[in-house]
Amino acid sequence: MRDRSIIHLNVTDFAVAVERVCDHSLANVPLIVAPSHAARGVVYDMSEEAYQDGVKKGMPLSLARRYCPAAHILDPRISLYRKAMTALVKEVASYTPLVEQGEEDGHLFMDVTGTHRLHGPPPDIAWRLRKRVVKSLSLDPVWSLGSNKLVAKVASRVVRPFGEMIVGLGDEHAFLEPLSLDLLPGLYAAERKLMVDFNLVTIGDLARLSRKQLLVPFQKRGSYLYDASRGRDVTPVLAGVDRSLKITREHVFAEDTQKVQELKVVLTGFVHELGRRLRQKKILARRVVVSLSYSDGCSVSRQATDHNGTDNDFALRNLALTALTRSWKRRIRIRGCTLSCDRFLPRSPQQSLFVMRPVQEVQQEKLLSAMDAVCDRFGHNSLRLGSCF
Predict the structure, then answer these.
(1) How far apart, in whole angstroms, are the C-alpha atoms of residue 146 and residue 144?
(2) Does residue 1 surpass a pLDDT of 50?
(3) Is the whole model's pTM more than 0.70, yes or no?
(4) Is residue 348 a part of any domain in this protein?
(5) Lowest-pLDDT range of 28-32, 118-122, 203-207, 353-357
(6) Which parts of 115-229 fold into alpha helices (H)?
(7) Among 76, 118, 262, 380, which residue has the fewest nearby CB atoms (within 10 Å)?
(8) Is 79 part of any domain?
(9) Backbone torsion region of residue 298, taken as left when φ is above 0, otherwise alpha when ψ lies between -120 and 50, otherwise beta
(10) Residues pairing with 7 in the sheet
């Protein structure tokens, strides 16, 4: 697995880049992509100019305006970003069938191992890809090349917002050692805080600890941290399904609430959006996570799982309500909620020959298929899953 050649293509600030392609007058203007008419809108994306002023993704729009008062505010156009992402994948798919994409974020992993006889050395492929994307889509991506996905992703973070980097085989540890732990993918906030308490600053500091030493404070996550700090990653590039992908929808209430009905209505609306998205991508979600943010600044996240995976709105709603019950354990008003699903599996095109499905499940599948057809013709908001509790 060490002999692989993985290219990571990343269009920095993807939503902003797409908006600037559509309107060239925005090229040198600080931009913030956020719902401007929402009572408590949060930043969806921002330009490099706004980022340098302190604006971050997920920041309340009111705070972002104070950090960057000169910024131009644009409402998110998710369908446009989705269309641009599809075009980006189409441009690179001719080089390899192993293309793993993110969710309208401009990130692509490509496994070009063994393609040198067709397309030349991997660095040449990356150069031609960048030129092709710039010419056809007017998007200028960062690219990096490594022996695995983790190293390639860190390399693209090092050179962003513009540039390229090649990490040769055997140079993974030397490349990662001086870098900040903030560049290491997959770290949780609690783990990052614990590393600060242990005075671990660089990835090299983490790599100097043995596997047994890491298992004590980080428990089962210690093995991942041990391998990641040394640049080891055997995760394959999965065409069509990104195992690291997380599809998320977030809502901030106009006024803090404690009414269970309001949360159930919001979650049901999210479930319909996520279920339709899963069916479009032909993938199944095995985990649903509900996160509640409270008025006092605390947040709680709980999950519910379906080991077989599902894209059924009704099953997803049951999982979401289960996770909601598990997460709502405080008597403090709720400011906002987030619903996300991950741990995806590809949906098999063939039905099982020996398992008889319940009649209700078959009826629900037909109903959802009809609803999707209506939404495809008349718009995604033309028909939605009802909330009756």
Answers:
(1) 7
(2) no
(3) no
(4) yes
(5) 353-357
(6) 116-119, 122-137, 149-159, 172-176, 189-197, 203-207, 211-218, 221-229
(7) 118
(8) no
(9) beta
(10) 110, 145
Residue among 90, 85, 75 at smallest CA distance from 45: 75
Average pLDDT of the chain is: 86
Domain annotation covers residue 251: yes
Q: Give the number of residues written for the chain.
A: 389
Long-range pairs of 272-276 with CB within 8 A, sequence gap ≥ 24: 272/313, 272/384, 272/385, 273/249, 273/380, 274/247, 274/249, 274/316, 274/339, 274/341, 275/311, 275/312, 275/313, 275/316, 275/368, 275/385, 276/313, 276/371, 276/372, 276/375, 276/380
Cα within 13 Å of Cα(306), Cβ side: 21
Token readout for 278 is 């899963």
CA 89, 94, 95, 96 torsion-angle sign: positive
Q: Which amino acid is at 134?
A: V
pLDDT band at 353 (very low <50, low <70, confident <90, very high): low
Residue 234's φ and ψ, nearest 5 degrees, are: -105, 10
Contacts of 231 (CB under 8 A, 6+ apart): 147, 148, 150, 151, 172, 173, 175, 176
Task: Please state, in angstroms and as integers, the Cα–Cα distance from residue 170 to each residue in 2, 5, 181, 232, 305, following that order.
Answer: 9, 13, 20, 11, 39
Domain count for the chain = 1
Determine contact, residues 87/17, Cβ cutoff 8 Å: no
Q: 222-259: per-residue pLDDT in tens?
A: 899 999 999 998 888 877 555 556 788 888 888 888 88
- Print the domain residue range for 279: 247-378
pLDDT, tens digit, 9 for 90 and up, residues 105-128 = 788 898 988 888 888 888 999 999
DSSP-assigned states of every residue in 296-319? TS-EEEEEEEEEEEE--HHHHHHH
CATH of the domain at 342: 3.30.1490.100
